[in-house]
């Protein structure tokens, strides 16, 4: 039996660097500056990721608080806004989840004719937690897209069970 992957699904597997990873490659119909601001402006980030923070500077604190599910903390290790010399933007931070080795998350944005290509890679993550993390990243990216479109994201977690089933098979 084959099933259609959810819209915007990511992939789990071994990357070019030989480490296990989660990778999402999405095209958002929003201009890169708007997506970058949603990710790096603390006031905007806190709207679509309530209770979470990314301090937009190298060495800045990162915190994703998922309530009873737990929290990930980290530190910004790279931050580069788009400019005339390089139209891409990148934010990279560590990811520390209690009981697991530290891993790395990279948000890469590049302009496209219709908006922004966003590639999120979470690498050096174990296979078992990757399934749960992939569900979380999927919902987070859906929330970002809705925020940038000025649409409510209250229902993005409603797809949790279907997403969990999909990523468990991935």
Quickly list its features.
170 residues; alpha+beta; Alpha-D-Glucose-1,6-Bisphosphate, Chain A, domain 4; eight-stranded antiparallel β-sheet; 4 helices; 34% strand
Roughly what is the average pLDDT, rounded to an integer? 93
CATH topology: Alpha-D-Glucose-1,6-Bisphosphate, Chain A, domain 4
Number of domains: 1
Which spans have pLDDT < 50 for at least 5 consecutive residues? none
Order of helices and strands: EEHHEEEEEEHH
Write down the overall geometry: globular
Strand content: 25-35%
Organism: Promicromonospora vindobonensis
Family: Belongs to the AHA1 family.
InterPro entries: ASHA1/2-like_C, START-like_dom_sf
Protein name: SRPBCC family protein
Descriptive account of the structure:
It is a single chain. This protein is of the alpha+beta class. 28% of the residues lie in helices and 34% in strands. It has helices at 32-40, 42-48, 127-148, 160-169; strands at residues 11-14, 20-28, 53-54, 61-65, 71-80, 89-97, 103-112, 115-123. It has an 8-stranded antiparallel β-sheet with strand order 1-2-8-7-6-5-4-3. A hairpin with a 5-residue loop joins β6 and β7 (103-112). The longest helix is centred in the C-terminal third of the chain and has 22 residues, at 127-148. The two termini are 14 Å apart.
